[in-house]
Amino acid sequence: MSKPSRSFLSRAVLRGLIVAAPVAVAACAGVPIEDAVPAGALDNGPTAPIDGVSPPALRNTGRYPNLNVPRQGAVNQLSPGEASAKKGEVRRSASGQAEVAQQPGIAPSELERLRKLGETHGEETLKKIEGE
Question: Does the model's pTM come out above 0.85?
Answer without folding.
Answer: no
